[in-house]
Design goal:
CATH superfamily of the largest domain in chain A: PurM-like C-terminal domain
Helix content of chain A: 25-40%
Shape of chain A: globular
Largest sheet of chain A: 7 strands, mixed
Number of helices of chain A: 9
Oligomer: homodimer
Mean pLDDT of chain A: 94
Chain lengths: ~325, ~325
């Protein structure tokens, strides 16, 4: 099949699936836990620990990415990364994903192939395989990708929930903050060249897989991934745990300094930027794993404060933000 | 919150989720296998047999349903039913689902609540629970629901695949065929009153959960659910198993007779109608469980025949059929 000019319209599902499977295969992921892979009514997956972590996340063209800003392999990588980050945030390891693609029949087949390449590559990075999916047509301009990730915990372990933070714990983060939000600003201002690394992180975050498991093993008392902004996500831990969390901006100085390309908006990107997918967790003081940074403290009370001052949080909301 | 006038726009995700969770709860499903339910980064689900069946299916407004033909609870039920039917088709029992909803902010909140009621009710029928989901906004007129179902086999069992049919087996079906397709014709012709049961089956099929497990226990050699039409789906067994399947129309006379409302198109509905979600399986002669009907035979060769005459199959294709 000549891919360069082809679109989905006019191709059978078998033809399209063969293109997708070829793309996925480039990721090179293999797993002995896949007992039945794609092609039957369902996949069949060994679950060694006897319990599965399950999460799902959708991506929408025009909401979660723009085709003039993100190549299809970025979109595929991001789709896997944001699901796998949720598995990490429980202390788990991603084992498998299923993906549905709902797309305008005018979508280029080459775009779909590169999407599959991105899905397959990021799955391989996470140590997981794509074990199935579904394909459906939609109206003009529509492209929705929905993925479900499955994962496992170490034998005998329980997941790190949001509700376990205790007064006296420290708040720690597994990586830099604000990059995805700053990258988005640069794209919006047509200044991608001013911060290609930030833009790259917006196009597809690359979580450090294994951070979640290390946090679990270090005794993290609460954890999630920063998907909707530090303050909003910290607020989720505070609310679930019935504690107050104080974020210390002095500890965020390196994050802010790295966002010079967006000027004085760096602080806002660090405090409120979503799609970061680093992990945010609480630990007994000194228990945070190597590579994690303490950026705040847990106390009696409610809500989130910045340097002792109460905040309303703020972060990504799908339906309260005016988007058109 | 006054639901009657409200739409998604302007509501926080927490508000919308509380509406959805209230709807789901009406289904009344409970499970002791849900170790961590909705509300954290992932769910955590006990997998007693040590292996999970996994499948995913998307539904698209304007493709898979029309709002003037289907109430939101029909849509929710159908979404669960078509995923759970895939689990049944392996011989399994559905244990849990996750669901993503991608919707125009102008979608009424009451519609979303009733969708959740349908999801919860059909999940309960299947013996499963909804353990998580994701919510995202989309452009005008867009509504996409994507579900992933997890299931399990009886301890020590292996799934019934499509590839095990052997020459000499019989082809059998677990229920009536053609109802969903006939119902669709009646809706398209604005004659719903001429066949309310057929229309009801199109709006939301109600698989007989447990049929798949009984087929597995009876030694089914190959199985799938009729999602894209009898001939096309029989062709999938034939291809995967390297056999020829002959469908006997005499055995389909009761199915056709029940579709009198669509006149002489009944045969086509029975042979080619999709969305039926009854099970199609092959067995050694006489091994088919009570309630299953023999409708054909497996022989050496390739392809699907009807009363000994070769056929090209034909069934639902998303991208080769002209839809606008």
């Amino acid at each position: 099949m000549a891919l360069d000019e082809a679109v989905l319209r006019g191709h059978s599902e078998a033809q399209i699936l063969s293109v997708i499977n070829a793309g996925l295969a480039l990721g090179g992921a293999r797993s002995t836990d896949v007992l039945v892979g794609p092609g039957d009514d369902t996949a069949w997956l060994r679950v060694r620990s006897g319990a599965a972590l399950v999460t799902t996340d959708a991506m929408v063209l025009g909401r979660d990415w723009r085709d003039d800003w993100s190549a299809p392999d970025h979109v595929g990588r991001k789709c896997v990364a944001q699901n796998a980050a949720d598995i990490e945030a429980m202390g788990g390891t991603t084992t498998a994903l299923v993906v549905t693609l709902v797309a305008d029949p005018a979508t280029p087949l080459a775009w779909v192939r590169e999407l599959a390449v991105g899905l397959g590559r990021e799955a391989a990075r996470a140590g997981a395989v794509i074990v199935g999916g579904d394909l459906s047509s939609a109206g003009p301009g529509v492209c929705v990708i929905s993925a479900t990730a499955l994962g496992e915990l170490p034998d005998g372990a329980r997941p790190v929930l949001r509700c376990g933070a205790r007064p006296g714990d420290v708040l720690a983060v597994s990586g830099p903050l604000g990059r995805a939000a700053a990258g988005l600003l640069l794209l919006q201002e047509d200044r991608a060249a001013d911060g290609p690394e930030l833009v790259g992180y917006q196009q597809s975050p690359h979580p450090a897989y294994g951070d979640g498991r290390r946090a679990l093993e270090a005794g993290a008392s609460a954890m999630l991934d920063v998907s909707d902004g530090l303050l909003l996500d910290a607020g989720r831990i505070a609310q679930a745990s019935g504690v107050r969390i104080d974020v210390h901006t002095a500890a965020l100085a390196p994050d802010i300094a790295a966002l010079g390309a967006v000027g004085d908006r760096g602080t806002d990107c660090v405090l409120r930027g979503g799609e970061e997918h680093v992990l945010l967790a609480t630990f007994a003081p000194g228990d945070e794993p190597t590579g994690w940074r303490v950026i705040g403290a847990v106390a009696d009370g409610t809500g989130v404060a910045v340097d002792g001052r109460d905040t309303q949080g703020g972060g990504w909301e799908h339906f309260t933000v005016q988007q058109e």
